[in-house]
Specification:
479 residues; globular
Length: 479
Amino acid sequence: MSKQRMLQFVSVEKEMPEKRPPDLRAHDFHEIYAEYAREKAAEQAGRCSQCGVPYCQTHCPLHNNIPDWLRLTAEGRLEEAYELSQATNTFPEICGRICPQDRLCEGNCVIEQSGHGTVTIGAVEKYITDTAWDEGWVKPIRPAQERAESVGIIGAGPGGLAAADMLRRQGVQVTVYDRYDRAGGLMVYGIPGFKLEKEVVTRRNDQLADGGVTFVLNCDVGTDVTFAEIREKHDAVLIATGVYKSRALQMPNVDSAGIVRAIDYLTASNRVGFGDSVPEFDSGELNAAGKRVVVIGGGDTAMDCVRTAVRQGATSVKCLYRRDRANMPGSQREVANAEEEGVQFEWLTAPKGFTEEGGAVSGVLVQRMRLGAPDATGRQAPEVIEGGDYVEEADLVIKALGFEPEEMVTMFDQPELEVTRWGTIKADFRTHATSLPGVYAVGDIVRGASLVVWAIRDGREAAEAMLASFAERQTIAAE
């Protein structure tokens, strides 16, 4: 294939995969984007300018070799493109769906900066790996040789699963412990199906199980089994629990019925999607059907909540965020999708309290805000506009204010486990080793609430560090 296939960004416009119309997609939880056709994926990949210094790769936490697999896609060499993509990313089809590309690779694409519209990197990445699954290019995990070393992983989210994949491919005996009944963490119970259909995650879980990874589910470490028991059983332990403690609000009537946590709301919805019996959903406690819904927060979790409420049949859905659109932390693409589906955003607003009737929430007491002087990071701090209060009527209020770490030292009864003043675990930047010998930690429990792609990177790095440690032990034993 000639080089003329690349550098087509001047003559070929940016084109995302076809998006289902809002009036259709707002009634189900299927993914909203269609799949690229082979020719369209090649065409869009061919827009890449093949930069000498690819900023898309630099700004990807995994440093995926994006220009090269775009070129291979443009040339029709899809299996090679998949192999290259998989070499640096354990779950490329998941990142292609849920990474905030507008803040990472695509947002830093050179042709985007020059005004030609970014290469649709995420959509091509998704297409490559979905095609690989369809064509049978995704190989089962079959270690060349079994090893005696054993690793216990606490948490079946992206960080833990990425480490499990790398370790198992090297023949290490891996056991994953998780408190939920399904592996996947927030990818299964936190992220709605319209962003990440669950079969995409469960087929990776099946691949790991078929490859010899042992899953111990419905297992609450610290209650059902102690951390000390896990540590004694394995040669190394990886803590990849994520952060599940919701940030609290301290204001009048915050405990009224109808004010719920985002994690509870999204988990209930996802369980219903699996066909589980969810009494809190059936009773209406965690169901938006027929209700005026207000979501508090401006991150990706808030976007998941507002769009879920639309699909459940809410009569109205509003999102309160204390800054303006330009300063919100969530993906701008997700905001646009939500607006298309009928969500109303109330920018520069924050809750002051709640009104109630008969013990149930009836509204949010809202205070209007403005952006004041920038703080030390340059971000403008929100300030209250005196006299601008009003009541936003609501039957269901969802708190999507972010997550904090649980009390890990107490949960695991490990006073020697060093944590930061925020409660996250202290771990080495590169090896992810903690203050406890043979214990590593990755993902949100170290970084605080972050992205799936960062957890994948951490898990892969921790696995490499464990393998290096095992090799060093063998060398010492042989001397």
